[in-house]
UniProtKB/TrEMBL annotation:
EC number(s) recorded for this UniProt protein: 1.1.99.14
Function: Component of a complex that catalyzes the oxidation of glycolate to glyoxylate.
Membrane spanning stretches: none
InterPro entries: 4Fe4S_Fe-S-bd, 4Fe4S_Fe_S_CS, Cys_rich_dom, Glc_ox_4Fe-4S, Helical_ferredxn
PROSITE patterns membership: 4FE4S_FER_1, 4FE4S_FER_2
Names of the cofactor(s): [4Fe-4S] cluster
GO molecular-function terms, A-Z: 4 iron, 4 sulfur cluster binding; glycolate dehydrogenase activity; metal ion binding
Record organism: Desulfobacter hydrogenophilus
Domain 4Fe-4S ferredoxin-type as annotated: residue spans: 12-41, 63-92
Catalytic activity: glycolate + A = glyoxylate + AH2; (R)-lactate + A = pyruvate + AH2
Keyword field: 4Fe-4S, Electron transport, Iron, Iron-sulfur, Metal-binding, Repeat, Transport
Protein name: Glycolate oxidase iron-sulfur subunit
Pfam family, one: Fer4_8
Length: 438
């Protein structure tokens, strides 16, 4: 099919899905971006108005249309509250892909996606090198959070406070695993995800500790690549297709009962976006369709499948060391709470640690403001949204804020670090793993 035919087919598909929108405006009341900007163009309804004349916009101001479509966290709050069930995220992803196909990638994104992300080995080597030299040009930001910042790079990264890259990424400690099922009788495929691998290997280690404790076999193929969502969110289908094909071939090498990740974004991507956006009639579409029902976030797997439940035992009987006497609150990642409706399981996992006390924060399921590329392109707005999350965390009185997405952890750590708040930022699996003796 010619490029022009492909483009007009994509536009037609988008157009057909737009007719479901009845312009009721319910999405306006819940959109975290609109709450800050008050701009109708930032809401799903405003973007749908724009997409209704997308073909025309492409001829007159394609770059402007792309900027407006991309000013969105892809949090799915609008879709979760839409009475007509408009497939908003699917429409936005397709529109971003169509616009990028028409305009082309910027040189910077071409370098990041096609030059780096698309090639997992090259990406790992670059991150290794960056980890070795990362202290040059950066300085300590906040000892509570262990963050760094960089005046030298402020033109590129703003005044972000970020966790340094791990000295030893997860894949260096565990390049691959193929452990048979233990007493649970189950074997899972494990997809740690990029942020766990490169910044938070302790999350991956906690998952493996928990699998071992529950007698769960693990298949973790060597050379896993990114799930592809950063590329797709920028409209870069080419890199997304390559990464999907790469990962799908790796996971097809072994049979497993469930595919588990500790990252809400990876879970939603593998479960919903891989089958939705893979090429029609391709082997990837077939495999992704087969894996979708058995793809789970780690907390859903532990609670729904392995029946981990809130602890009944007293504090004195608990093994937990790190969280003994702590108060823990929970932030719902959008990709878990809104996309997959997983809300109770991560809370149950925290409650399974009898040594700490769970407290609910206000607006726990409001977006933290990260949004992946949104944070990179709209940092001030992203931070404004994150500061509201910070207020709710502090108001809860918790000593630890837990979540189930390493990307949310980055955003929450940044806003807490900016204010030198002493609240710890943890993944729920770390809180549960702390109840298990090594
Ligand atoms: S809530 Fe749904 S139907 Fe209503 S305006 Fe928004 S997208 Fe359209
Ligand atoms: S996905 Fe989130 S940020 Fe984007 S329009 Fe919907 S509610 Fe607003």
């Amino acid at each position: 099919m010619s490029e022009l035919n492909k483009l007009s087919k994509s536009l037609k598909e988008i157009e057909n899905q737009l007719t479901d929108c009845m312009k009721c405006g319910m999405c306006q009341a819940v959109c975290p971006v609109f709450k800050q900007t008050g701009n109708e163009g930032d809401v799903a309804r405003g973007k749908i108005f724009l997409l209704e004349r997308l073909a025309e916009e492409m001829l007159t101001d394609a770059k402007g249309a792309k900027t407006r479509i991309e000013k969105c966290l892809m949090c799915g709050t609008c879709a979760a509250n839409c009475p007509s069930g408009v497939k908003i995220l699917e429409i936005f992803l397709k529109a971003r892909a169509a616009l990028t196909e028409y305009i082309g990638l910027s040189p910077v994104k071409r370098l990041i996606f096609r030059g780096m992300l698309k090639h997992p080995e090259r990406m790992d080597a670059l991150v290794d090198t960056a980890a070795r030299f990362q202290n040059l040009g950066t300085s300590k930001a906040d000892p509570n959070q262990g963050t760094r910042c960089s005046k030298l790079l402020s033109g590129v990264i703003g005044n972000r406070h970020f966790l340094p890259l791990a000295k030893t990424p997860f894949h260096k400690t565990y390049p691959s695993l193929n452990i048979p099922a233990g007493h649970s009788g189950l074997k899972v495929a494990f997809f740690p995800g990029c942020v766990t691998d490169k910044m938070n290997p302790e999350i991956g280690k906690a998952v493996l500790k928990v699998f071992k404790h529950h007698g769960v076999g693990v298949f973790m193929p060597k050379g896993q690549a990114c799930c592809g969502i950063p590329a797709l969110a920028s409209g870069e289908r080419n890199t997304f297709d390559t990464l999907l094909a790469h990962n799908a071939a790796l996971f097809a090498e072994e049979s497993f009962d469930y595919l588990i990740t500790p990252c809400a974004t990876c879970t939603a991507t593998i479960k919903e976006i891989w089958p939705m956006m893979s090429e029609k009639d391709s082997i990837e579409k077939f495999r992704a369709g087969q894996w979708a029902p058995k793809t789970m976030d780690i907390s859903q797997f532990l609670v729904d499948v392995l029946q981990v439940a809130p602890a009944q035992k007293s504090y004195a009987g608990s093994h937990s060391i790190e969280f003994a006497g702590d108060t823990v609150t929970y932030h719902d990642p959008c990709h878990l709470a809104k996309s997959l409706k997983i809300k109770s399981q991560p809370r149950d996992l925290i409650r399974a640690n009898a040594a700490c006390t769970f407290v609910e924060m206000a607006e726990a399921d409001t977006c933290c403001g990260n949004g992946g590329s949104f944070n990179l392109q709209n940092y001030d707005l992203s931070k404004q949204i994150g500061m509201e999350k910070r207020q709710n965390i502090l108001a809860s009185g918790a000593g630890t804020v837990a979540t189930a997405c390493p990307a949310c952890m980055m955003q929450i750590r940044d806003v807490l670090s900016q204010n030198h708040d002493g609240v710890k930022v943890k993944h729920v699996i770390e809180i549960y793993a702390d109840t298990i003796k090594d």
